[in-house]
Design a protein that fits this description.
With 312 residues, the protein is of the alpha/beta class. The chain has ten helices and eight strands.
Length: 312
């Protein structure tokens, strides 16, 4: 057999083997890097970046954590925690801006020392497990990350000392988690997070959750509100906010507010006149009071709070 014939045969064989390899599905693209931010930007004072192993997804997941200035020296003290969830397309480094304001307030003796955790919740998971179980954002948050934080850092491992909040997808995600697992949180602050009736037939099919009716009902924040209503009324403080120039989110935020009102759930609600879908603008417009709701919730829950008596 001539060399040219052998070359043709080898080329044809290699082409056949390559063509036989399965092509990645469209929703599998770029999934390897979506759970750990890269590169890590410059972080505010007191904020550091870490990863932990998610067994449900068999991969590393990133998170940023703010430790207050007294954490390193007051080694016997345990601290309450605010879990802050980022918006769609973001990552664990996306929303750390609020930690800089918390730090300034602590140094000035105006705010108590609190730990803040900024998890990576995936790009568009709404902090729920996907129907195909490839993205286990809820399982990661509830069964893996929170236990990891409580085991690794000196937190007060009690729902009364655990706050959850977020902006946009993070607001929706924090609401999803708090309505489904109210026994884990003492307070919820939904910041412009659109809340959907995901089990409503007119919203089907659901590209992320799938079409299983039981799964959809189990992940419907409105149904979980009704399911856990007595516990939520007695134990979970809720605050909801949205800008009036944010029509894509304001509609469902108002629907959630109306549902809480109709069911007799006491909560704080405010709209920011002229504000579009911009978290930094929302925070900057109320810097002096931004953490008041969460701090008040901790106080009402009897959580011991420590204020610095000196400034730097």
């Amino acid at each position: 057999m001539s060399r040219s014939v052998i070359t043709i045969i080898l080329f044809a064989l290699s082409h056949t083997l390559f063509a036989a390899q399965p092509k990645p599905k469209a929703n599998q693209a770029n999934t390897n890097d979506m759970w750990v931010a890269s590169p890590i930007p410059e972080l505010p004072t007191g904020v550091t970046h870490h990863t932990f192993r998610s067994e449900s997804m068999k991969r590393e997941v990133g998170y940023c954590i703010y430790l207050p200035p007294g954490y390193a020296t007051d080694t016997e003290r345990r601290y309450p925690v605010i879990y802050h969830l980022h918006g769609a397309g973001g990552n664990e480094a996306r929303s750390v801006y609020s930690a800089s304001m918390l730090h300034e307030g602590i140094l000035a003796g105006k705010l108590p020392e609190i730990v803040m955790v900024f998890p990576n919740g995936g790009r568009s998971t709404m902090y729920q497990d996907s129907g195909d179980e490839r993205f286990m954002a809820e399982t990661m948050m509830i069964k893996e990350l929170i236990p990891h934080i409580d085991a690794t850092y000196r937190t007060i491992a009690d729902r009364k000392a655990r706050c959850i909040e977020g902006f946009s997808m993070g607001g929706r995600g924090s609401t999803n988690l708090a309505m489904k697992h109210p026994q884990l949180f003492g307070s919820l602050f939904n910041q412009s997070g659109n809340v959907y009736h995901v089990s409503d037939s007119k919203n089907l099919p659901n590209a992320y959750l799938g079409d299983d009716p039981e799964r959809l009902r189990d992940n419907d924040a409105f149904l979980n509100l009704e399911k856990n209503l007595d516990y939520i009324k007695a134990n979970l403080r809720i605050q909801v906010a949205c800008g009036t120039a944010d029509p894509d989110h304001l509609i469902t935020v108002r629907e959630y507010h109306e549902a809480l009102t109709k069911l007799g759930v006491k909560h704080n609600y405010f709209e920011v006149a002229g504000l579009d879908h911009n978290q930094k603008k929302m925070i900057d417009g109320r810097k002096a009071t931004w953490f008041d709701f969460q701090i008040e919730s901790l106080k009402l829950n009897g959580v011991p709070l420590h204020y610095r008596t000196t400034t730097r």
